[in-house]
Structures are given as C-alpha cells and as structure tokens.
Write a structure and sequence with these properties.
The protein is about 35% helix and about 20% strand. It has helices spanning about 10-20, 20-30, 90-95, 100-115, 165-170, 185-195, 250-260, 280-315, 325-335, 370-390, 420-430, 435-445, 455-460; strands at about 50-55, 65, 80-85, 120-125, 130, 135-140, 150-155, 160, 175-180, 200, 205-210, 215-225, 230-240, 340-345, 350-355, 355-365, 395-400, 430-435, 465. The strands form four sheets. Strands 1, 2, 3, 4, 8, 10, 11, 12 and 13 form a nine-stranded mixed beta sheet that branches. Helix 11 (about 420-430) links the parallel strand 17 (about 395-400) and strand 18.
Length: about 475
C-alpha cells in the first residue's frame, strides 16, 4: 500500500465519505488487488438524502414522519435514508408489536433498503432486553443485523470523523459503547443479500467518536460483500448515534436532521400548546373542513366524469383494433344499439338477433383492403349457421381496413375499404359489408341521440353489399 502515500490526507478523507470510511476504503483497495492510485480526482461532498423518513419522532421539517406502530404502513425501501428514534421505543410498544408479523417484516424491508444503497441512522440508548412470557425481546428487533452495546462509563471522547458533528459536539459523557458481534447476521439480512456460505460479509465499524481505548461511541457500519470471484460491492450502512439524557429527544433529532440534511429544523410548538384556545381558529378550521368536503365532492365528480370519458373513448377501438379486441368492441356496440347477442356456433365471431333476423358476424381488422378471402369466410359462416340452426342467417362482414392509417387516409381510390370484386360478390351472397369508419360515424350520431339504434340495426340486416348509413334518422 506504499503507492497510496502520494495522496493528500484531506483527499483520502473526502473519498472515504463516499465509500463510507477511510478504513473501509483501504480494505476495498486491498481486497480488489489494487496496487496504485495515481492522482485521483477530488470527489464532491456526498449530497444529503433527497427523501428521508423519521421513525418515532413527529413534527420535523423536510421529512416524512411515522410512529413505530405504523412502520408497516409505509414503503420503507422507497426512502433514501431512515432516521430511527430508538429512544422513543418503550417497553410497552415493543411488547405490543410481535416479532413475527411485524419486526420480522420491518427487518426484511430495511435489508432491501440497504441493498439499494439506502442509509439507516439510529439515535439509540443502550440495548436492553424485555421479558415476555418465555421469550426475551429487545429494543433493537427492528434492525436488519445485530449491533450490540457494552455498558461502561467515562468522559474521555475522541472525535475521529467530522460526521454529525453538531450532534456529537453535545456528547460530553458516555455510558456505553457499540460493537458488531460475531453472530451479527439475521435471517432477513442473508435472505436479501445472500447465503454467507457463498459470499463473505464485511461489517467493519467506521468510528466517528471513540473512547480512550478505541471503542466506538458513535459511528457507521457499511455493508460490504465479497464474492468468490473477487468482486467487492459496497451497499448501504447503519449509523449509530448515542442518546444522552442531557438532551431532549426532540432537540437531539433536530440536530441529527440538520447534520444529515444540511437544512435547519423549524422550531415547532410543544404538545401542550395545542390546548391553548386562540380567537377565530375554531371558525377558520370549520371553514377549512367545509372546503375540504367540497374538494372531495369535486374529486368524486371529476372521477365520475373521467369514467364517462373513458366509456365514450373506448368506441374508438372500432377503427384501430384487430383480432379479439375488435370482435369484443363491435359486439359491445351491437348490444348498445339494442340487439341481443349469442356466442358463436361455429367459427363466426358472434351472432345477434334483431326483429327475428339473425346476424352472423365476421370481423376483420387489416392493414390493407378487405379481401375476397375474408368474404368467403363470412359466407362460410352463414352456410354453417343455416345447416346447424335450420334457418337462414344474415352474413355481416365488419371491415376495419387500413387500420394503421388515419381515417382521412382510408377509402380513397388507392385504398378502398371494400374493393369492387368484394362488393360485387357480397351483393350476390346477400352479405352486409360494414365499414368501421362508416359505423363509428353513425354510432357517434346514435350516442348523441341523432339516430336510433333500431335504425342502424335495420340497415345492417336489410342491406346487401356496402351498408349505407348516411340517410338514417
């Protein structure tokens, strides 16, 4: 590692903040078999997290806040950083929340947060155990891996890193220190990151503050994993900051958030201030509530209107869909017009009844003109219907021709919907040819009340060749 010496100390310190710490940076270099680093660029200071959640401490600015009991109501892995006020997690709350079904799920989500590079910061007192029947619970059941505390006391403090310096400047005396035990991994951690039999976990501590003999009073535990191939990956980290009783929890969290976000916390009123009655406030809040009710009513009206729009817009499928979607929308339109439909008997799309006449429908959505082959299929359906049902049916060929083109580009001399040979044979076979463009136009008139559904169906079952809807009323 002698070749790293030309780096300036300040440059090493700044680079380390990106990776997590100087010691982890050296481990990463060594385990990656790197032998030299020449003139590295000075990295920018890491940006504050853009999306932060605070757990167990309400009323903070620039962040979302949630109670311990509501942890499962939010998507934890959707945040860049989560700050836990473990000091507010009392015994009663711990005993109310089961490990299986609550904290186990929280550990899994937090492990996923760490794998995505997220950060966990914990303002925490000494780790403690609580007896519950035959089990022992702890105030650290939420954490995706184990961090232990050792009770000792002293007032000798050495700041190793200028991280959370506003908060740590208040640390004058300590009553415990942190360490990562040998059996630190939880089932949830290995389930997310991988089996320790096949990968190597490195949970080295990065000290922000230590006591006289080097034990960690505050610091960070980054997740580094080494694969058998030699590849190393650094993920998120858990930062632990000691809670000391000289500082109120709210003030402590404000300092931590200011250090984390680089933005000042507003001075929020204490809880008892809400009991003070001020003039006009009740009336104003009542007015606000009325307006919120009106807003909700408008939202419901807008949602209903959007549904109406969608219900009308869906008929556009008549002129761009193909296959089953085209069959389904044309059948829905026939039903809307007032006919009764039945499932196919043979290979036709569907059958509809109108005034005692049966329409045997074939739908085609094509990128060119409707062809004679399509007409033959429709004619074949009519013959099979007559043979099966022992009475005549009316062949209806619905053609969505040139379906990839705008409506204005369809039906011209070079792009006929139904070519002359198709029209001629359809007239002979008494098959109705329904153009998708013509049908959508008359269907819109039907929706507006300008023409009856009965008149449209009459035209379909009565006409042969191209059905003319223009004179309908």
């Amino acid at each position: 590692m002698a070749t790293i010496q030309p780096l300036l100390d300040a440059e090493i310190e700044d680079f380390a903040r990106i990776c997590g710490t100087v010691s982890l940076f050296y481990q990463f270099v060594e385990s990656s078999n790197l032998t030299s680093i020449d003139n590295p660029a000075r990295p920018d200071k890491p940006k504050p997290p853009s999306k932060t959640l605070v757990v167990g401490s309400p009323g903070h600015a620039h962040v979302a806040c949630v109670a311990w009991t509501d942890l499962k109501s939010v998507n934890l892995k959707d945040f860049d950083a989560i700050v836990f006020n473990v000091a507010s997690l009392d015994d009663e709350t711990i005993l109310r929340l089961p490990d299986y079904g609550f904290f186990k799920d929280v550990r899994k989500e937090l492990a996923r947060l760490l794998k995505s590079g997220g950060r966990i910061i914990a303002l925490t007192p000494e780790k403690r155990s609580i007896k519950q029947k035959d089990d022992w619970r702890t105030n650290w059941e939420w954490c995706p891996f184990n961090i232990e505390t050792q009770p000792e006391a002293g007032d000798t403090i050495e700041i190793k890193r200028a991280v959370f310096d506003s908060y740590l400047s208040k640390l004058k005396r300590w009553t415990f220190y942190y360490f990562v035990p040998r059996q630190a991994l939880t089932y949830e951690m290995t389930d997310v990151f991988g089996n320790p039999a096949s990968i190597n976990y490195n949970l080295s501590t990065v000290e922000y503050a230590v006591n006289r003999y080097g034990m960690m009073l505050a610091g960070e535990v980054p997740i580094m994993i080494s694969l058998p191939s030699g590849q190393n990956s650094i993920f998120g980290s858990v930062t632990v900051l000691p809670h000391f009783t000289e500082l109120e929890q709210k003030d402590a969290m404000n300092l931590i958030l200011e250090d984390l976000l680089g933005r000042p916390q507003k001075q929020l009123p204490p809880d008892w201030a809400s009991q003070i009655s001020m003039p006009f406030v009740i009336e104003i809040k009542a007015e606000i509530e009325q307006k919120n009710v009106a807003i909700e009513s408008l939202r419901q009206e807008i949602a209903a209107s959007e549904l109406k729009c969608a219900e009308i817009e869906k008929w556009k499928k008549l002129v761009y869909e193909t296959g089953h979607e085209l069959e389904n929308i044309f059948e829905a339109a026939i039903i809307k017009l007032g006919a009764e439909t039945h499932p196919a008997i043979a290979e036709e799309e569907f059958i509809f009844d109108h005034k005692g006449k049966a329409g045997v429908v074939e739908c085609k959505g094509v990128t060119k003109s409707v062809s004679l082959d399509h007409l033959r299929q429709a004619d074949s359906h009519v013959l099979k219907f007559a043979e099966t049902e022992n009475h005549e049916g009316k062949g209806v060929l619905f053609g969505n021709a040139w379906r990839n083109l705008a409506l204005s580009a369809r039906g011209s001399g070079e792009r006929p919907i139904f070519p002359d040979n198709v029209v001629k044979q359809a007239a002979k076979r008494e098959i109705a040819l329904v153009s998708a463009c013509d049908f959508l136009e008359v269907f819109c008139r039907f929706l507006k009340g300008e023409v009856s559904g009965e008149a449209i169906l009459d035209a379909i079952v009565a006409q042969n060749g191209i059905v003319d809807f223009r004179e309908l009323e």
